[in-house]
Request: fold
Amino acid sequence: MQRKVNDVGGLPGNEIDRHEHDPNLHEKRIDAMLMLLTSPAINAFSVDSLRRAIEENTQDDYTKRGYYEKWLLAIRKLLVEQHILSNEEIDARMQQIRASKV
Reply:
């Protein structure tokens, strides 16, 4: 049986930073988005689906990306999988947001 990227038990590695920090605005927004999308009213996908999507990351993505960045990539993947949004729709909206900040 092959290990998933998140299964690092017993492997040598770096120390884990266990210090708490106050979440920044970006992290709060990702958390809020997840809470809304998994709420009974919307039920776009389950938290178990989020975990599966995170575990399907490449080793490189899993080790180089932060906690909330993994969530965000998984949310995007699940929105596309569930046919709620397409990659093109997400990209177009992100382009609009970036243009409005100029």
Q: What stands out?
A: The chain has a mean pLDDT of 90.
